[in-house]
Structure formats: structure tokens, C-alpha cells
Request: fold
Amino acid sequence: MLKRRLCEATFQWKLTCKGPLLIRDERYADCKKGSKEEGFPDCLFMSHLSKKELETIAKNCNNKPPKMPFYVPGTSIRGPFRALAERIIRSLLPKDTLPHLTACNPFEQKDKKNPGCSKRLEKGENNGSKYAAACSACKLFGCAGLASRICFTDADIDRGSYESVYRDMIGIDRFTGGVFKGANMRYHVLENTTFTTTVTVVNFELWQLGLLAYVFRDFEKGLVPIGYGKTKGFGQVKGNITEITLTYPAIPTHIEHMGSLMSSATERDYYGINICEAPSFDHFEAKGNEGLSLYQSVTATDKAVFWNKVAPSFNEYVKELLKHAENYEHQAKEKVT
Reply:
């Protein structure tokens, strides 16, 4: 699947968090010198500082919250992003549908009947490629033995766009209802943060763009928190796509995808590519390519129309999954009888 680069979609994604946001820097636990009574926090926000620089900050962070080159790792965005995508896929299909036809549990290793794709694909039982045999979520996000199609860049936080503060909390004694001594917590959080990440999907299928349309929509509505302390109200972010760029070997007039770009039916069958027409799109604007380039990039000038064009493809893909699930159940019953 990644031996050739046929298409690529890049999304510039701006996220804002008015309330507290906390991405813990686990190195602080080794650098911490002071106690809670002295005003030292339990954790610090993730930063680009080296461990030696962090040790210096950790010795003097009891007086006031530090200001450092903070950032949000791409993995802290990718995790909630994948969890939401899996939830959408599972919600649209019957509860008893087999995981490999919807979205598997990637951490499931012991269940012999329904293991996660990482465990299931290592047995080599699939006749075609691992991509064809993987569940819908793993086809996009990858698993052990199957490379991910999607990646998220780390997002630096502009020094002028946040407030570095401490949030003090207390523990509750479940028996008395009062304050539990020794359970006070001080968190270092950022408020009023704005950061931008780049989401890139290489060799995408059209239904995958349709799935992203629903995921980005839920982030835009502020339905998906990120980072530490979600149950405490931390990490309530809202995301907006600021730019959509598609890259192909030639300037397109349609939203081309793997199903439309693969000329060989044998190759499509081997990888299990979903075949559908490339939607027409009249809102492309050529993007200047610097230096020598074999590829042409275009931006979508009307993002709303773009999402309306690709979203229905995911709905049709779900219908195909339902048919596969029904056929699988029918074949299983025939084997029993």
C-alpha cells in the first residue's frame, strides 16, 4: 500500500482550549525536589526543555507557574482521535457484529475467537494483504504489522496565547465527606491555549475521508476532550480545519482516491480497496510547488462543499460492511448445519 504514493490529504487543524489543558511531562517526577507543602506542583505541562533544563525549572517552580516552550505531542491528539473514529464505526453497526468487520480492540491479545488485528494478522490466515484483512479502524490508524495511513505532528503553543497557572484541588474522604488529608493536588495547566497540528493521510480511500469528516465535526462541536484530567473538566478543546490540501501526480478535477487511481483490478482486489467514483469538485486552487516536484498540490477553497462530497462515501461504506456481516453470519450457519 505504501510502495507507491498515489494520493495524499493534508489538513491544517487549529485547536483552542479556553479552560485548563494538561499534558503531563513524566520527566518531572524524576526532577522534582520540593514537597506539596512547599508549593511544588504534582506535575508540569509538557515542554521542549532538555532534562537538565527541566531540573533547573523544577527547583524553582514553587513560587509561580513557569513559562517554557510548551507543546502538545501528536500522540496526545491521535489517541482521542482514533477512539472517536472507532466509536463512530461501532455505533453505526449492530452490537454483535464481529470486531474485524467494524473496529477491533487493538489491545486484545487473549481472546482466541475475536483477537485484535495485531494478534489476528500475525497468524497469516488472510489470503490477500494484511490491509485487506484488517478492521476499518486499523486500515486507517494501523496496528502491529500494518503501517498507519494517518499521522499527527506535534503542536507548539505560542507563548503569547496561553496563561500558565496552578490549579489546586482537594481529595474527598468517602466516609466522612470532608477533606482527605494528604490528598491535596496541585496541577500545572495552561488556559486560553491555541495550537495547530497537521494531519496527513497517505494513499487514502474515499470512505476514510468521509470518516474524518464526522470526526472533525465532533471536535468542532467540542465533544472530545484531550490530555490529562478529562473527568475534572480539563482539555475541553474545539478544533477547526483551516486548510485542506490534496496532492496527486497531476492536478485533479475530481476528489481522486485509491479506488479511482488504481488501474489494476487485481491490485484493488488484493488490497480490498472499496471501489467508488471520484466525486467532482469545482473548488480546487493550484498550490505552488517549490523546487523540483513530481506531484501537484491543490487546496480546497470551499471546505463545507468538500466535506459534503466525501461524507456520503462513509455512509455507503457502512452499508457494505453490513452486507459483509450478513454474508459472514449466513456462511457460519451453513457450516454448522
The chain has a mean pLDDT of 88. The beta strands are 8-17, 71-72, 150-152, 155-156, 163-169, 185-191, 193-202, 238-248, 284-287, 296-300. The longest helix spans residues 303-336. Residues 8-336 form one domain.
